[in-house]
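#struct-pred

JT: dropping the chains for the assembly here, can someone run the whole complex?
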Amino acid sequence: MEFIKRFEDRAPVYAKVYREPIVNRFANVGGGKETEMFERGKFFSNVYELYMYAAMLGLKKNYRIPLESVETQKFIEIRDWKTSTELVRFITMALIARSNLDMNELENMEEAQVERTLTELKDLLEEYANGGFDLIYTKVQDEPYFFENEYCFVEMLGEGI
Amino acid sequence: MVINSITLTNFQCYFGEMKFEFKAGLNVVIGDNGAGKSKLYDAFYWVLYDQVFDSLNREFKKTNQVKGNLVSDKAKALCEPGEMVKTEVEMVVYNPKQEMEYTLTRSYTVSKNDSGVLRQDPESNFTILKTDKFKISRPMVNQADIASLLKGILPDDVKPYMWFQGEQVDSLIDFKNNSTLTHAINVLSDIREFDFFEEVSQKAYEAAEKEYHRRLKEASSDTRKNEELENQKQRIQRDLARLEEEKKLAAENLTYAVERKDLLLNKVDDAQQIKSLNNRESHLKERLKEIDERLVKMKAGINKSLISRNWILKGAGSLVDMFAEKYDIYSQTRNRQEAAFSAKKEALDELYKEFRLPVDVPEPIFVKQMLEKEHCLVCDREAPNGSAPYLKILELLERSKAHKQKPKPEPITKHDFSKEFKSLYQNGLSLQGMINHADHEIRTAIGDILESEAKYKEVKGELDSIQREIMEAVNASSVSSIDSSIDIVNEFQSQLEAIVSSEKKLDRLKYEAEAKQKEGKKIDEELKGLSTGKISPILEEKKNVLEDFRDIAKSTRERVFNRLILQLEEEANHHYYSMTAENKSVRGRIKLEKQANGNYMPKNLDSEGRILTSINDSNIILIKLAVIMAIISAKKSSPAADLYPLITDAPTSKFGDNYAIGFCRAASQVYSQSIVISKDFYNKPDLQQRLFSEAGEKIGNIYLIEPSLSEEVQREHRDELEVRLTKIR
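RK: done, full complex below.
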C-alpha cells in the first residue's frame, strides 16, 4: 500500500477565508456530545468530515478552484480521518478518476516524480474541496435561511447533482 | 339610648356647622363617593372614643396622632394670623328610661400665630352635659359616671355588632372561624349567666364531695385501706381529667376537619377536574419531551449519516465509472506487460528445463571423482573417457556452470501499485450499491423525521387545548390555580381521613372515660363500705344534691344555648328572606350547624340539605348581616336591641338595589334606631321612594350630603372643600 499510504501521509489545507463562516460554524471544532453539538447548530463531528463533504461536492460537480495566492489553513493528515476509511479511499479513487494521472506511467516514474504526482493529487483534493466550500459559501450568502433547516446538508446533496 | 342629633363643626371635610337630627327607626344619610359619608361615621367615633379611621393605613388613630388633620382645610385656609379654628362634634343622646338627655362634645383647636404658622393643640377636649326632663343641665365631671354613661351608649364588646363599616362585616361573622358565632352570642345574649351558674354549681359540688370524703376517711374502719382507695380514686380522677383534655383536643380536631372539609366541598369537584386535566397535561408534556428528544436524536443522526452511512457519495456513481474506465486501460496495459514478462520468463525456464537432474545433483565433487574413475557411481557402470556415458557425466559438471549464468528477466515496472489500484477499484465497486440506495435511505430518514414532527405538532395541539381547558376551568371555578387544586384535592382527602380518625378517637376516649367512671364509683362503694357508719346522711345528701344541681346547670345551659341557636336560625332566615325577597336568584337557607367542639357555624344549604356552592359575595354578606340581626332580634329582652343604635357605613356597598332596600327594611324592623350611611340611593329617586314606602312608619330622617365643589377647577383645591347638607325627608 505504498501509494495510498504516501498519499494519506499528506495534510491538505483549505482557504482560511472559510474558517469562520463555514468550518467553525458547521463543524464541531470544540468537541462535546453529539446531540449537544447538533443543538448548537453543528452538523459535522469533525473538520475533516466537513472537508470530505466539500471535496465530494466539488468532485461530483467537477468544480474546483485552485488555492493559488490565498491564505490557507492546515489541518490533520488524511491518515487521521478516522471516521470512514472507505470514504477516504473513495475520494482517492475519485481524484485519480478526475486527474490526468496515467496509472501505468506512474508505475514507471522515478521516485521524485512519484512524490510530485502524489503532491499534485493532494493539490487536486484541495482544489475540489475549495470548490465545494465555494458552493456552500455561495449558498450561505444567497439563502441564509436554508441553513436554519436541521438537515440542510442532506438536502444540499440532491441539488444539481 | 337614642341618638337625637350630631353636629359637626369644621370637622374634616365639613366646613362650618352641620347638624344631623335623627329619630327612632331607620335614618339614612345618602351621599356619593367622596361626599363625606365616612367622615360622618368618623365623627360618631371621634366624639365617643377620641379616634378617627385612617383609611390609608386601615387603622384607628387617636387625636394626638392626626391633630390638625381633623380640622376642615377650608376653615384652616380662612383662618387669619392671630386667629384660631375650632373643630367640634356634638352628639346628643337620650335615655328614654331615665328621661335624661346627654350632650357629648369633643373639640380640638388649632391657631395661627402672627407669622401665619399653624399651632396645634396636643389633645382634644371632651365634655358631657346632662339635661333632665325639667331642662336643668349639669356638666358631668365624675369619671366613673362618664365611663358608665359611655358604656350605656355603646359597650365595647357590643360595639363591633352595632357600629360597623361594610368592609368589617366579613370579620364579624367569619365563616372560617367556628368560634365567631359563639362569641357573638356570648356578647349579645344572657347566656353568660348560665356559664356562671354552671361554674358555681361545679365548685359547690367539688367542695361538698371533698368534705364528704374527708368525713368518710375519718370514719373509716381501715385507714390504710381507705388511704389506698383514696389514692386510687385520685389516680382515676387524674386519668379522667386527662381523658377530658384529650376529648377536647380530639373534638377540636374533628371540628376543624369538618369545617375544612365543608369549606373545600364546593371546590373539590372543580379541583378534581383541574387535577385530572393537570395529570393529562403532565402526561402530554412527557410525551412531547420524548418526541422532542427523539427528534433531536434523529436530526443529529441524519447529519451523522452523511459520513457514517456514506450519504455524501449520493450521486457519485459516475466517478466509479470514470475510475473503472481508467483502471481498465491501466489493467489491460498491466496485463500485457505481465504477459510479456511471463513469456520471457517461461522461455528462460524452458531453456534450463532439459536437464533431468537438478543443478548440482550429484554434487560436482562426486561428478569429478566419477570422471577420474571413468565409472558412473549412480548406475555403477563403466564410463570410459570419451564414451557417451563419460560425456554425459561431464555435461553434469558443465550444466552447473551454465546455470550460474542464467539471466534474470527485467521487472515489469519500476513500481507496482497494482494491488492498491485494484483495492481502490474494488472499494468503489462495493460502495456502488450504497450509492444507488442512498436516495431511498435519505427519503426514509427524512420521512421518519417529518412523521415525528407531525406527531409533535399533534401532541402540542392536544397540550395547548388541555392548557386552555385548565385555564378556563380555573377561571370558572372557585379554585385559584392548578397548584391549589392539587392541594385542595389532597387536603380534602386528608380531612376526610382526619374526620374518621378523630371520630374513632372520640369513641375510644368516651369508652375509656366511662370505664374509669365505673371504676371510680366502685371505689366510692368500697370506701363507703369501710365507713363505720358515723357519717351524717345529710352530708351525703348534700353531695348528691349538688351533683344533680351541677348536672342540671350544665344541661340547662346547653338547652338554653341550643334553643337560642334554633331561635337565631329562625330569625336569621327571616331576615335573610326579607332582605332577599325581591331577588329571584337561588339563596338557600341559613343553617347554624353544631360542631364537634360545641361551637356553631352558619352554613347556607339547599332544599336537600346540601351546602350551596354557587352563592355570590352579596349573599355571603347578607347571611352575615342576617346572623348579626338575628342575634339582636332573637333576644328582644336583651338591652342590645332596645337601647343601642345601629350605625353603619356602606354596609350594602356590594349589593344591588333590591338587596340594599332589603337590608334597610330589615334594619328598620330589628333595631330601635339605625343610622345607615350609604351611597346606594344616591341619584336614584325611584329607589328612595321605594325606601320610604318599604320602611313605612319606621322611617326616620333622610339626608343627602354632597361636596360643594362643583367646578372642575375647584375640585383640585381642598381648601375650597365643604359639604352641602340637604334633608330630603
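JT: nice. Chain B has 19 helices and 19 strands. The first strand of chain B starts at residue 2 and ends at 11.
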